[in-house]
Every structure is written in structure tokens, then in C-alpha cells.
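Q: What residues go here?
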């Protein structure tokens, strides 16, 4: 089984949480599953910039990324956050390898919108490196940074990066570890199962908005791109990774039809 787990930066900001998630992923990997991790680090990025007197600006939920900001992206996302997670996974017993989308053309992007600066949209994903690493028993850990066609470096939304890599690699399951227990209906009750069309209905009716709308759009793109199943779960729940892959019906499952 091929699995991609996307972890939000908030879950990695605390050392105890980071090591607990690493332990769970190590246990999954030990079952023989081929696992790749994609991670964010928005909270860490904002803090790093604030400490240097740089105010973050967001447009449609995406961080405006200047040349100064892209330098911080490399230092924080591809540097500190990635290395801390790789170290935690190593301690948990895996052979984790830190990467960005720039490595071996894993994620190639183009500028999403001139207003956003160096924010990219992934246009191609070459999974050759992931196949090589996972076949040899390594666990790739990918920061949300992509390369451009002319050698540019782009900041990429974590969910978009996860979908692009998952689709290119042909995963069986993509898990979004978030801060909510799943997708909620109009009565604020968790929805266990959604098809792509159900997701569109929730968006059209305004039930899913903001961050959850973005998650559902990502899920639709993933299942349309060949991912068999997307699961949206609360990353802080006890043993969430092992419980999901053991078949427990947690969070919200999204399938194509």
C-alpha cells in the first residue's frame, strides 16, 4: 500500500506532538506500507518573520511571498521544520529523508498569481525519486517548496502540494491531519463519507467554507487524479494514524463516487 500523510505545521510546532506523530508513522511504515509525508509550517513561518519585523500578508488565504519571504520559506520549511520532523522520525526508527519538491523534479510549479509573488501552483510531479527511496526502505519527508521551469523557487500551499505528489505517485490513501474532527454538515455533525459530488454540494450551499472548502477542493482534485481515498482527520486525536489505517471510521472519508 502507498500512503501519503499531510501534516499541518501546527501539529509539528510542539515537540511532544511531533514525536508522537513520528512514532505513529513509524509504526505504519513498519507494517510494510510505503509512506511519504508532506508537511507545512505556516505557524513557524509567521513567527520567524515577526521576529524579524516582517508582517505577513495573506490574499485568499495564501501568504504573499516576496524574495525576502521565499528566503524565510527555505530556512524555516525546508530547513528547521523539515529537519526536526526527519529527526523525530529517525528517533522513532525510520530511515527518514528530508526533501523539497525541487529535488529530482518531485514538484514543478508555475506562478499562481502575480499578486502573490513567489507562490506556485504545481503543474507536474515526477515520482521517480519517491519510488526509488521507498523501494529501498526510506521514508521521504517533503517540505512544501517547488521548483520553477526557469529555476525559480516557489512557496506552495501544503494541501495542493500533497494532492500533486499523491496523484503523481499513485497513492491508495491520502490523509490530511488537521485541527478538526472531519467535515461537518449544516447541523455541525460529522459526515463519515462523501463523494466528490457531495463535496461540491457542500461548497455550493455554503456549508463548507474557508479552510474546509479548500480541503474539500483538494480532496476532489485528489480523487479525480486517481487517489482511491482521502481521509480528513483531527491530527491530535490519540493514535490517529494507526487507528485510521487499521480501518477505524474516523474523520471524513472522500471517494470519487
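A:
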Amino acid at each position: 500500500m502507498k500512503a501519503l500523510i499531510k501534516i499541518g505545521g501546527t501539529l509539528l510546532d510542539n515537540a511532544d506532538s511531533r514525536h508522537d506523530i513520528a512514532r505513529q508513522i513509524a509504526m505504519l511504515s513498519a507494517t510494510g506500507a510505503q509512506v511519504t509525508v508532506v508537511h507545512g509550517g505556516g505557524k513557524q513561518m509567521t513567527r520567524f518573520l515577526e521576529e524579524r519585523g516582517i508582517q505577513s500578508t495573506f490574499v485568499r488565504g495564501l501568504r504573499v511571498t516576496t524574495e525576502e519571504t521565499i528566503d524565510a520559506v527555505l530556512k524555516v520549511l525546508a530547513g528547521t521544520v523539515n529537519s526536526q520532523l526527519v529527526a523525530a522520525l529517525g528517533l522513532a526508527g525510520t530511515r527518514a529523508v528530508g526533501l523539497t519538491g525541487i529535488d529530482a523534479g518531485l514538484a514543478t510549479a508555475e506562478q499562481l498569481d502575480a499578486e502573490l509573488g513567489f507562490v506556485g501552483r504545481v503543474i507536474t510531479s515526477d515520482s521517480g525519486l519517491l519510488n526509488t527511496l521507498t523501494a529501498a526502505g526510506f521514508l521521504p519527508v517533503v517540505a512544501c517548496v517547488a521548483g520553477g521551469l526557469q529555476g525559480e523557487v516557489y512557496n506552495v500551499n501544503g494541501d495542493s502540494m500533497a494532492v500533486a505528489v499523491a496523484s503523481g505517485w499513485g497513492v491508495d490513501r491520502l490523509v490530511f491531519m488537521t485541527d478538526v474532527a472531519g467535515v461537518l454538515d449544516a447541523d455541525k455533525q460529522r459526515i463519515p463519507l462523501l463523494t466528490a459530488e457531495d463535496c461540491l454540494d457542500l461548497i455550493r450551499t455554503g456549508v463548507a467554507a474557508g479552510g474546509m472548502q479548500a480541503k474539500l477542493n483538494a480532496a476532489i482534485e485528489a480523487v479525480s487524479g486517481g487517489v482511491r481515498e482521502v481521509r480528513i482527520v483531527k491530527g491530535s486525536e490519540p493514535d490517529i494514524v494507526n487507528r485510521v489505517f487499521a480501518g477505524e471510521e474516523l474523520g471524513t472519508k472522500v471517494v470519487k463516487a
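A: Context that may help when evaluating the design: The chain is about 40% helix and 25% strand. The chain has two domains: 2-171, 172-229+245-257.
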